[in-house]
Amino acid sequence: MCAELAADNHPSPDGMTGTISGTSPVQTIRPVKSNGDAPVIRATGLTKRYGSMEAVKNASFEVRSGDVFGFLGPNGSGKSTTIAMLLGLIRPTAGQIDFFGLGPGRRKEALARVGAIIEIPAFYPYLSGRDNLRAMAHLRPGVTKKRVDEVLDIVGLSGAAKKRFGNYSLGMKQRLGIASTLLHDPDLLILDEPTNGLDPAGMVEVRHLLLRLAAEGKTIFISSHLLNEIEQVCDRVTIINKGTIIAEGAVDELVQQSRTTLVRVDQSRQAITILRELHGVQQVEERGDDLLVTAPGLPPAKINAALVQAGLDVHELRRAENSLERVFLEITGTANEQAA
What we know:
By secondary structure, the chain is α/β, with parallel strands linked by helices. It has helices at 79-86, 107-111, 129-137, 145-154, 170-182, 200-215, 227-233, 251-256, 268-276, 300-309, 324-332, 335-339, and strands at 2-7, 10-18, 27-28, 41-50, 53-63, 68-72, 94-99, 114-118, 188-192, 219-224, 236-241, 244-250, 260-265, 283-287, 290-294, 314-319. The longest helix has 16 residues, at 200-215.
């Protein structure tokens, strides 16, 4: 099903493929730096209420030109609601959105520079990839047949241009969806769950495409709950949970500030009992002969001291290699839920 971007609840020709799904302080790892230009997206105090339920609560963030920006959160965290507000598909209860520094009064002009996919792209299954794009091009004045072939080449589908969409793999379908957003050569791409439902091969296809588009100068906003995928393509992220933004910063700095410690002891079962009772420890999990201790703000020396005082021999204790997923569990406080 196709949806159209709207400006102030009025339809605009900026078509978008897909469908719409239905407080702790922000932890800033690195302050947002200005490159001298207005942010591509500036959201200030975005809030969306449905009756007494707040789907998004006072969300503020910026996306700079050239960013590959990850908007992270579990299912139901408010990601799709936020994107729908960005694109004018639903009206915020409060807050303001500016694209390219143009201000809310020039929303239609700004959205003409945006290409977006919400969830799964939908095309005519009996038409070829090329014919599907040509049909969409008719909705956009100025998009030529040559441009259709150009975007097919950009997404690596020139060789499958005559193939029926219904016979495409999931990865090819998602790449064709991205091709549809490129028809009018937008400055900004907003992609909601671009790898959701794909097999590993499809994820790799889409990941490589996004990295190539970023290298060519596109600003890309990616919403996802797949933290491993985001870690591989994004340089900056904002994390939202239960409608509230709880962290933002550079991916590498978020990962580096994680507080997971690897511990190796002989009496692992006894060590697990001791560590789980230690104040500040969120989670203890076994990984082979090692224990991974999630304890934000707790120095490794205190972990070591607790084990030694209990008469245990500690053979190794060091910071564990971390991932964005582990950081997410730590800062959302869901590590204990995962262990339960």
